[in-house]
Amino acid sequence: MDNFNFYSPTEFVFGKDRENEVGKYVKKFGGSRVLVHLGSGSAVRSGLLDKVKKSLESENIFYTELGGVKPNPRDTLVYEGIEICRRDNIDFILSVGGGSCIDSAKAIAIGACYEGDFWDFYTDKAEIRACLPVGTVLTIAAAGSEGSGASVITQENTRLKRDAGSDLMRPKFSILNPLLTCTLPAYQTACGAADIMAHVFERYFTNTPEVEITDRLCEAVLLTMIKETPRAIAEPDNYDARANIMWAGTVAHNDIIGVGRSQDWNSHAIEHELSGMYDVAHGAGLAVIMPAWMEFVMHHNVMKFAQMAVRVFGCEMNFERPELTAKEGIRAFRSFLHSIGLPVNLKELGAKEEDIPALVKNQGLGKGKTGGFVNLSSADITEIYHIAAKAEA
Amino acid sequence: MDNFNFYSPTEFVFGKDRENEVGKYVKKFGGSRVLVHLGSGSAVRSGLLDKVKKSLESENIFYTELGGVKPNPRDTLVYEGIEICRRDNIDFILSVGGGSCIDSAKAIAIGACYEGDFWDFYTDKAEIRACLPVGTVLTIAAAGSEGSGASVITQENTRLKRDAGSDLMRPKFSILNPLLTCTLPAYQTACGAADIMAHVFERYFTNTPEVEITDRLCEAVLLTMIKETPRAIAEPDNYDARANIMWAGTVAHNDIIGVGRSQDWNSHAIEHELSGMYDVAHGAGLAVIMPAWMEFVMHHNVMKFAQMAVRVFGCEMNFERPELTAKEGIRAFRSFLHSIGLPVNLKELGAKEEDIPALVKNQGLGKGKTGGFVNLSSADITEIYHIAAKAEA
Question: Which residues of A are less than 8 Å from B182 in CB distance?
């Protein structure tokens, strides 16, 4: 096991009706002038925003609103948020929405404390040294941003999708009410599930040997998702299914199951180009890319994929030919994703095979990240996209 | 799933040689005048104390020492610590030792901020409202106190063992270097493992239905302990085995795997009377009590015990007679404890069957806790002690 620091000081406030306490938690963590950051409008329609406002008002907290966060959140709205923070002397950012909304809130929170262009943090041109406190009321289990120090933003004019990270950006509190996720369409529920599972797999496939505790914790989250996701889709109002998925989503990404081991994140990087270019749901992109990545890299450590197949997907171990078990596990994963209504190839996703060279070229414009489970060249990434193009459930 | 709050703001600093950074972390969390709290002397002999002092000195931090913490830490030393805090204007308590040392440090930390008798917190006569910051350098994986808000203290003159809890007592940081645990005798390693597994089982056996995510996370920790403990005993210097056990021990008790579900804790309460009366190791007491408790309560939810048997101990499910699978799981647990060198009955523990009435009577003097998985009467507790008296591996 590698040396590590694990610091997750977010207070998670979980359960029915907890959003009515949001004012109390904003106050607890020092907020008096709040920017309420919102997504597409569902929080308005569902009455959630009214509850949040009422709770803030009951604590005599000033607030101003900024709505309009889209999936794959844009830099343009972040600039707008930063302006508002300066204009209104905002001292707390409250995200009311999903992962995109939280990521956008985090970007505003670091941007408001920085003289330069916040995009510097997403292109490794500046180091995050200060951040306004952020709180969240989560409306979808997916990104894990409610418990992480990470944020992903897309630059509107270039369509480049880049990430930044710092423990300073970890939310002070996150309110997780599974009931708020019961109104999600099945497709969004499935996309969220794929994102959660991908967060685990990015950690699971490691080159660090002898990490039984985090291996087992990763498998625990995956097994839960395999049980609960089809249930949440078949019975959208099933509170228990929603609750299990919601806590799984947080545990999957606050890093308690990923510490002390090298992580991969190449599937995320490859997918980011897809959702950046086509504006498709991140989880849907991952459903197409991740199994393709697995097929491409499995020979790097066949036994690890066999372990996944046996422990997570309940495959029989083939002791004579472990690679067949490994392949069966990947097939089972793709088949699971298909069964919950997700695309399994580029066409189903709405992406075009002829764009692969452009996707790979954008990749090259990234932070030059190498490493992970298998170090990928441009040719490797091209091959992974082609596997993804040809895949069938 | 039940509503819950989860707040674990401890910074975990994990890995080889991390104790050399202790001064930096004391400073980070506001300490300038430190009480270094120590156990029996092994930290002195191993050179650990010297490293800690050197690190504190390099940050120009004042410190004073208080050693002598014994297993089942006593109130008498806590009173001494509180006096020193007042005399030397201590603003930070640093525990260098195992769970007993941390529990004692926490008691001093709350006692120093309280006008009355600190024992009030352990008898529910006062509520914890303030606490000096506590940091730890952990030397044994067992109690989980390095990541918890709990403390257990034994009153010297009455031998009563009582607990207190508050998020305020959670350590600011905990330094976990698995190498420091390599010198532990096999018996202490085994006792620690039993304690860790018991922390999981106290959460696992719940009356809250539909808690797949925390069930699976609990099983992940148990599976890890079953794999790694025999390895750490056979090869004391095996860093990976020690590292997996150490992170498992923290995850087992910081409550991330126990939130949103009713918990039991009756085995701990029953055991506390044993280690209070005979001054035996807590983990050894748990090894005797927990399987006996399981046998007594298994009919309350046979399928949950069958789940444990199948998922944790790899038993075959008997679909016609699930209770046989349940029993086989309990047998497998006791047999595992025996295989790592722990006692399985009162006699092996050094306890006397004729003391059972006195043990049960002390129980009655507790906080009057009822509930848990099965609500136990005095007659039930008597029966559990008798099962423990008769048990064989």
Answer: none
Distance (Å) from the alpha carbon of A232 to chain B's nearest alpha carbon: 13
Q: How many CB atoms lie within 10 A of CB A67?
A: 17
Distance from C-alpha of B205 to C-alpha of B305, rounded to nearest angstrom: 8
- pTM greater than the 0.90 cutoff: yes
Question: Do A90 and A132 form a contact (C-beta atoms < 8 A)?
Answer: yes
What is the predicted ipTM? 0.96
Q: Is the dihedral of CA B274, B275, B281, B286 positive or negative?
A: positive
Mutation for testing the A interface, residue in B4, B6, B138 having most A CBs under 10 Å? B6
Would an 8 Å CB–CB cutoff place B15 in contact with chain A? yes
The distance of B216 to chain A (nearest Cα, Å) reads 5
Pick A251 or A363 by higher pLDDT.
Answer: A251
Q: How far apart are CA A290 and CA A298, in angstroms?
A: 12
A237 touches B: beta carbon within 8 Å: no
What confidence tens digit (pLDDT) does each residue in A51-98 have?
A: 999 999 999 999 999 999 998 899 999 999 999 999 999 999 999 999
pLDDT (tens digit per residue) in B124-183:
999 999 999 999 999 999 999 999 999 999 999 998 888 999 999 999 999 999 999 999
Q: Answer yes or no: do B3 and A14 touch at CB < 8 A.
A: yes
Go through A327-336 and write b for each residue having 16 or more CB atoms within 10 A of its CB, e for each that does not.
bbbbbbbbeb
Q: What is the C-alpha to C-alpha distance for residues A282 and A50, in angstroms, rounded to an integer?
A: 29
Instruction: Kindly state whether A220 is in contact with chain B, defined as any CB-CB distance less than 8 angstroms.
Output: yes
Neighbouring C-alpha atoms within 13 Å toward the C-beta of A10: 31
B227 close to A (CB below 8 A): yes
Euclidean distance between CA atoms A296 and A330, whole angstroms: 11
Would you call B54 an interface residue with chain A, using a CB distance cutoff of 8 Å? no
How many angstroms separate the CA of residue B323 from the nearest CA in chain A? Answer: 24
Residue matched to tokens 């069938």: A392
**Position of tokens 């035996």?**
B280
Task: List all residues 6 or more positions away from A67 whose beta carbon is below 8 Å from its beta carbon.
Answer: A37, A38, A39, A40, A41, A44
Sort strands B134-138 and B150-154 into parallel, antiparallel or unpaired: unpaired
Handedness of CA B187, B189, B193, B196 (dihedral sign): positive
Please judge whether B243 and A1 are an interchain contact, meaning their C-beta atoms are less than 8 angstroms apart: yes
